[in-house]
Task: inverse folding
């Protein structure tokens, strides 16, 4: 409800009404709602109806109301005038005035004023033509007034326009009706779709194929949604279905023909013969005569010949009274199908051969059982697309058909047809006028030799017009170039060389001031005391020896407790692959253990190691059968640490997030574009989806060179994922597909989110929300972006100091000589264990909670590769695993503590869904596999709640849900612990996802 607030230079509506009627301004109230103006007139006595209307109508004749309202207010089509006494709740009278018929309203009022009593109603006065009658003539202003009678009560204003349209198939120019709806809020399309469709179709407009409804919020430039209404006349729809032999449609057409003869019709079909019973249309007393045979046949025969129903060879016509067992007369006639073989085949037989028009008719008849509803709203329309061995079926209606409503019916029907060459069905649903589907569903009818995942095909907005209602998508944003690793290294080298002289002079000065060194050209007399020099050398040597000894001891300790990572390379399926893998594994092992082990002695017999003396897996710990997996790649932990240290972004208090972000930024700088697929989630994603295996499997399925990156973060919840996608990464750095691999515990809103809490307390978190929002600019051409990239490089070069460059170079040199520095994380883990034994476990426990349940065995091997993937070769053996770890039931598991889906995690997930839809990013959520040992009754119950939650959201646009939680409950070889996959399981999951036909993988 909106009250008009007018500029001082214009006369307000209230003052105008007051001057026109003579009622004090305190007794006049005005409201604007949609295209309607409501005027309430009050007084100590109720204002006289006809006198007030007479004054007001005369003023309306001389005034344009649009001048009295603000520019933002839509045109006024009708005025409602109310009269009541002050203090009363309800008006005593109300009168509606059509502004396009003021003269007729004035004539009616003048006749009423001549009457002796206000109760006398004018019966023979001027005729007020309804908006409906005017709208049937096709006038756009009348159509807008007609629709506003319904929509104005919802606060929606209406404007109608006719725009010429030139079809793309070289047909003559046609007119299209456009209905623009404007409101102060965003009405749901399902609220307006069917009422507008019913009212427009009820008009039976001629000259229009369809109408486009555009809903827009006041003050915004872009429309909120579009809706297409099929304006095909009901008679044409009936004839179309009758042509296919639909009995109900034939009965409707014959009833319309015989209704003037007062004859009713009942129709039935047996085999290929149509039985038509002619009875009196109205005979309550049973005295009406039996319909005349000649009259009935003259009316029925031309209709049936013109229709030529498909698959119906003959018709038998009966004449009788309703309720009689025997007809009074019978006649038989042959139909066109008996003469022409093309008409003799039934629609079902045609559909079995793959005839698309027949399939469309049968499906539309299946989904529109109520013929009246289809004629009223247009019903559910079907569009077909036969692509390779898949049949794609689009369901189109003013309100998007529900997946549960139509998907199972369609798939069962197509399965029954057994169309040759069709091995799978994909069903889609959308609102009429949209190009993209709101949901999709698919099954395979037969085993397909080559499962090629296919993106959703593009259906035309209508069967006649292609791409005419939906604007074309804009080109993807160009990624801004950034610093590459080579540029950074060259710059550091140049800075170190430029400052070498200064650093040498500074070091020389420091050593001379320490009195331990002297210049070579100085005489012996000028040298410091020889005795002091000897003492300094002795103590310096002792300190150096102590440092080397400590480093060597720590290296030995780590070498005894760290398993040599060679098992992964022995498990390739082919012999040639084994040979190559063994060689590369040996090289990598030599690089890894060069400083960590200087002895070739066997491990002690009581040492807990994954390997035996021959460096093969122990038979009592790991199954002997080899499993397929992608080859191990070079570790990137050291590079990630260095890149994170160089980054201008402050830390997020989660080391792995810092390092994964640094690796991702380096990937962007190297390739110049974001990866095609981004894997994200907790440690279950970090270990559970192998980018290399996924890319290779997609290549075999017809998707070559798909770039995949794993952005998994230990302990990541829905809040953490939402923060990374929406705030840490720029829109231009996002991929085409986000593969979110996780499970129910990441959505538990009842437990404390330690990972996000740690991030929220970081300096990086504060900086992210202090950055000004970046928006796309039309001036961001490739040249401008390149220039801005060069300027950014220059600025970053100025910010790097000489001290940092020299310090990094010295750190790298010293680290290369140390045996313990590469394993400092493992040393830290050992120290934490000792502190736990001493009872100081509070701080350590809080830090371990962030690792998302990572086991001790895998902690020592947590080194991701350059794709961000963490490959673990250890296999889950319950007998050995539970000797070192407690078996925690679900009701004592902190990850499921106070389990509830609603809350902060659900809100974060909803934000991700909306963001992905706005950026046109396909979001695929994979519920990762779990072992049978892990899924006890408590966890199963929570997993079931999570399943129901995900299935409710599976109808969201651009969102696909895949459940693999119980894929391998007994295959322990695929797991590193009860809830995390190893690299063998990650390989199998990657293959399964690549073969999934419902995931729209990007095509290059």
Result:
């Amino acid at each position: 409800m909106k009250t008009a607030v007018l500029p001082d230079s214009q006369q307000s509506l209230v003052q105008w009404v007051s001057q026109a009627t003579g009622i004090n301004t305190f007794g006049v109230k005005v409201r604007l709602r949609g295209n309607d103006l409501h005027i309430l007139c009050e007084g100590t006595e109720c204002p006289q109806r006809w006198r007030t209307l007479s004054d007001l109508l005369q003023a309306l004749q001389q005034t344009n109301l649009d001048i009295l309202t603000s520019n933002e207010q839509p045109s006024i089509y009708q005025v409602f005038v109310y009269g009541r006494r002050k203090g009363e709740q309800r008006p005593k009278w109300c009168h509606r005035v059509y502004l396009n018929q003021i003269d007729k309203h004035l004539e009616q009022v003048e006749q009423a004023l001549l009457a002796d009593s206000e109760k006398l109603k004018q019966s023979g006065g001027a005729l007020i033509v309804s908006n409906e009658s005017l709208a049937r003539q096709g006038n756009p202003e009348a159509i807008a007034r007609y629709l506003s009678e319904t929509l104005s009560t919802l606060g929606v204003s209406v404007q109608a326009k006719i725009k010429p349209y030139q079809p793309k198939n070289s047909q003559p120019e046609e007119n299209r009706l456009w209905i623009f709806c404007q409101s102060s809020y965003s009405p749901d399309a399902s609220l307006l779709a069917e009422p507008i469709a019913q009212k427009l179709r009820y008009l039976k407009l001629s000259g229009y194929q369809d109408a486009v409804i555009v809903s827009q919020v006041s003050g915004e430039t872009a429309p909120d949604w579009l809706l297409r209404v099929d304006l095909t006349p009901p008679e044409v729809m009936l004839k179309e279905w009758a042509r296919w032999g639909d009995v109900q449609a034939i009965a409707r057409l014959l009833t319309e023909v015989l209704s003037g003869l007062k004859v009713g019709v009942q129709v039935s079909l047996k085999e290929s013969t149509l039985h038509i019973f002619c009875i009196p249309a109205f005979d309550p007393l049973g005295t009406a005569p039996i319909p005349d045979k000649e009259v009935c046949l003259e009316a029925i025969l031309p209709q049936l010949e013109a229709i030529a129903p498909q698959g119906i060879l003959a018709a038998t016509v009966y004449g009788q009274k309703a309720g009689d067992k025997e007809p009074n007369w019978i006649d038989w006639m042959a139909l066109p199908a008996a003469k022409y073989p093309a008409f003799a085949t039934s629609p079902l037989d045609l559909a079995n051969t793959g005839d698309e028009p027949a399939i469309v008719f049968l499906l539309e008849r299946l989904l529109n059982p109520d013929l009246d509803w289809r004629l009223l709203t247009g019903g559910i329309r079907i569009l077909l697309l036969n692509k390779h061995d898949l049949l794609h079926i689009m369901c189109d209606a003013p309100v998007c058909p529900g997946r549960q409503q139509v998907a199972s019916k369609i798939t069962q029907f197509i399965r029954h047809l057994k169309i040759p060459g069709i091995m799978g069905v994909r069903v889609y649903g959308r609102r009429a006028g949209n190009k993209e589907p709101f949901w999709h569903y698919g099954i395979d009818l037969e085993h397909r030799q080559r499962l090629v995942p296919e993106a959703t095909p593009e259906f035309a907005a209508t069967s006649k017009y292609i791409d005419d209602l939906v604007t074309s998508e804009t080109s993807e944003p160009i990624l801004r170039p950034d610093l590459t690793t080579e540029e950074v290294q060259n710059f550091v080298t140049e800075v170190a060389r430029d400052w070498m002289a200064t650093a040498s002079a500074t070091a020389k000065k420091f050593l001379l001031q320490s009195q331990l060194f002297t210049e070579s050209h100085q005489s012996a007399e000028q040298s410091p005391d020889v005795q002091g020099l000897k003492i300094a050398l002795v103590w310096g040597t002792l300190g150096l020896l102590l440092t080397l000894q400590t480093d060597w001891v720590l290296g030995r300790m780590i070498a005894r407790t760290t398993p040599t990572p060679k098992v992964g390379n022995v498990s390739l399926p082919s012999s040639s692959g084994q040979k190559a893998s063994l060689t590369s594994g040996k090289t990598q092992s030599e690089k890894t253990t060069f400083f960590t082990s200087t002895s070739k002695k066997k491990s002690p017999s009581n040492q807990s190691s994954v390997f035996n003396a021959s460096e093969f897996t122990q038979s009592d710990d790991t199954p002997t059968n080899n499993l397929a997996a992608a080859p191990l790649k070079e570790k990137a932990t050291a590079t990630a640490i260095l890149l994170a240290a160089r980054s201008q972004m402050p830390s997020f208090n989660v080391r792995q997030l810092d390092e994964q972000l640094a690796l991702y930024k380096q990937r962007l700088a190297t390739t110049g574009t974001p990866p095609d697929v981004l894997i994200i989630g907790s440690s279950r994603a970090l270990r559970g989806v192998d980018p290399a295996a996924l890319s290779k499997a997609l290549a075999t399925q017809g998707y070559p060179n798909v770039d995949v990156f794993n952005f998994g973060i230990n302990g990541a919840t829905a809040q953490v994922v939402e923060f990374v996608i929406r705030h840490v990464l720029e829109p231009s750095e996002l991929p085409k597909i986000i593969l979110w691999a996780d499970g129910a515990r990441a959505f538990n809103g009842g437990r404390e989110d330690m990972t996000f809490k740690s991030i929220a307390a970081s300096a990086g978190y504060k900086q992210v929300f202090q950055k000004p929002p970046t928006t796309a600019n039309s001036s961001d051409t490739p040249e401008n972006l390149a220039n801005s990239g060069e300027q950014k490089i220059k600025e970053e070069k100025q910010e790097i100091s000489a001290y940092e460059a020299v310090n990094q170079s010295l750190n790298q040199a010293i680290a290369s000589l140390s045996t313990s520095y590469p394993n400092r994380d493992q040393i830290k883990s050992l120290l934490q264990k000792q502190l736990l034994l001493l009872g100081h476990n509070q701080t350590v426990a809080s830090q371990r909670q962030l690792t998302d349940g990572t086991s001790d065995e895998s902690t020592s091997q947590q080194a991701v590769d350059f794709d961000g993937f963490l490959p673990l070769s250890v296999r889950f053996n319950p007998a050995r695993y539970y000797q070192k770890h407690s078996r925690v039931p679900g009701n004592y598991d902190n990850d499921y503590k106070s389990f509830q889906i609603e809350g902060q995690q659900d809100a974060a997930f909803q934000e991700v869904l909306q963001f992905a839809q706005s950026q046109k990013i396909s979001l695929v959520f994979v519920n990762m596999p779990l072992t049978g040992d892990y899924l006890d009754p408590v966890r199963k119950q929570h997993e079931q709640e999570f399943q129901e939650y995900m299935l409710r959201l599976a109808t969201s646009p651009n969102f696909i849900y895949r459940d693999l939680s119980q894929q391998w409950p007994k295959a322990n070889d695929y797991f590193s612990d009860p809830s995390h996959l190893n690299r063998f399981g990650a390989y199998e999951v990657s293959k399964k996802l690549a073969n999934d036909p419902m995931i729209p993988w990007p095509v290059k």
Q: What stands out?
A: Residues 430 and 1000 are 18 Å apart (CA to CA). The chain has a mean pLDDT of 77.
